[in-house]
Amino acid sequence: MSHALIQKREKPFITKALLETSIDLTKARDFNTIAEILFNFIQEIVPISMSVLYVLESDGQTLKPRACRGTKIENLLKRNLFHLGEGGVGYVGREKKALLLTDAEKSTDLPIQIRQVKGEDPIIRSFMAVPLIVNNRLTGVLSVSTSEPNRYTMHDVELVSIVANQVAALVELYGQMEEAQRFSDHILENMNSGVIVTDKAGTIIMMNRLGEEITGYTHRKLRGKPLLSQPFLNSASRWIMERCIYGGETVSEAQGMIITPSGEKKSIRISSSFLSTGKGVKKGYIFIFRDVTQLEQLNEKLNRYQRVLTFGKWTSCISHEIRNSLLPIRTAIQILKNRMESILRDAKVGELMEVLETESERLNRFLNELSENRSLQEGSPEETALSEALDETIFLLRSRLEEHKIRLEVCNSTPVIVPLTKDQVKQVFLNLFYNSIDALERVKRIRSRNIRIEVKPLSGGREVEVRFQDNGIGIPRKQLDMIFEPFYTTKEKGTGLGLYNIQKEILRVGGDIQVKSSEGKGTLFILKLPVIAKEEGCV
């Protein structure tokens, strides 16, 4: 319909258009719908080549295009944004009053200039712009233009202003809602827990950044998919979420597990709640989960440290009491041997006396070993070069390794000083070597017996990691949690204190030791030690 025809039917037509537009605006639920209704109304009452809806940014100075018709929003956004007072749009924003130019190319009486971007936007000849104002506060500016001159009148400006006033309130309202949503999104993205939100059917609506990090899956990949069928949930986690979605139950800090795409298992704590409307109608579910894997590992390390400390105090008391009784026994044996020389010629008597002496000496050696496990030492630790202690240990065992045809590979490019004595470091490696040699000997069929030692830096050089691996018989899964316990051994002549001693020394200086093993395939010990300094001459 031409503009001339609109003017002939002005009153009934305009009244109807205004009424329908007002009703439509009250039903709008988002900013894009508001803009669409506004542009449709303008196009009904005046000819347009281009119309742009600008919103005042939070800085109170910048007008940013949010919607348009007749051009592309991306073209508008890549240009310099209008500031209050700049160009026709900025002038209207600063003055808070409408502007009408019958021919933008010939209007020279105003201290402003209409921005023309030929080739991207339609040519601007007739131009009008109205401010969007709520309670004397500027919320934005609406500009309308056509490529023909003399097409707009002040009456057109007044009609557009009527709708613009209603739009202004909605722009402010939805601006506040969007700001609240951004604030809510910011909170979700910066929470120290993962968050998954589903609808009431259990379909994933959103997942925050930390949720992506914990699960290993992106929000984009999971959105729209049923939560309970996702592969990152183990049976315990899935059951917890089923209770919420199908049973209407909420949980707090329930124990679960996440399995990442790489197969890594992460211990988590899950809490759930309902997502409801203001009237209490259930719309969906919120699951909050946090990764407690490192916390559990730290707790286990602290528990092991406490067991070592307790056992050390216990053994100190026991060995002291036994040694007090053993010393006079050993002394008496020596006195008897000296005074009963003739009687000892009796083979039976001599044999019994030899048993007494041998067994008392063996018991004394055991007490010496046990006494090393007394309360953890205090004070400044000793220091030694890790590489030097490792090299000396290998030198001591070279012939034994050759005898058992064991191939040794050492990868050590990290010469560092650690807070242990050389004897302690050598004892650690000797125990690991003895265990590996024994494990390799117990394999019946094997192509080659291998031990591999890798030393590498961690945490920017503040720690060093030693990986000691063999392809021996391995350790059964049910025994893995017990191998560091004192007196636990699978060897016929073992005391069960070797690995316990290793753990004790490493924990004492703030390090850690872990074991991974697959029965029939081999064992890997991972030692972590704090680094005091690099060895001299190393950079």
Structural summary, described in words:
- The protein is α+β, with helices and mostly antiparallel strands and 539 residues long.
- The protein folds into four domains: 3-187, 2-Layer Sandwich (Beta-Lactamase), CATH 3.30.450.40; 191-291, 2-Layer Sandwich (Beta-Lactamase); 296-371; 384-534, Histidine kinase-like ATPase, C-terminal domain (Heat Shock Protein 90).
- The protein contains 15 helices and 19 strands.
- It has helices spanning 3-8, 10-27, 31-45, 73-77, 87-95, 154-190, 209-215, 219-222, 235-245, 293-339, 347-371, 386-403, 422-441, 477-480, 498-508; strands at residues 50-56, 62-69, 82-83, 99-101, 126-134, 137-146, 194-199, 204-207, 254-259, 265-276, 282-291, 384-385, 406-412, 416-418, 449-458, 463-470, 512-518, 522-530, 533-534.
- The strands form four sheets. A six-stranded antiparallel beta sheet has the order 3-2-1-6-5-4. Strands 8-7-11-10-9 form a five-stranded antiparallel beta sheet, with helices on both faces. Strands 13-15-16-18-17 form a five-stranded mixed beta sheet, with helices on one face.
- The longest helix has 47 residues, at 293-339.
- Residues 1-9 and 374-380 have low confidence and may be disordered.
Helices and strands, with pairings:
Layout: H1 3-8, H2 10-27, H3 31-45, E1 50-56, E2 62-69, H4 73-77, E3 82-83, H5 87-95, E4 99-101, E5 126-134, E6 137-146, H6 154-190, E7 194-199, E8 204-207, H7 209-215, H8 219-222, H9 235-245, E9 254-259, E10 265-276, E11 282-291, H10 293-339, H11 347-371, E12 384-385, H12 386-403, E13 406-412, E14 416-418, H13 422-441, E15 449-458, E16 463-470, H14 477-480, H15 498-508, E17 512-518, E18 522-530, E19 533-534
Helix pairs in contact: 2-3, 2-6, 3-6, 10-11, 10-15, 12-13, 13-15
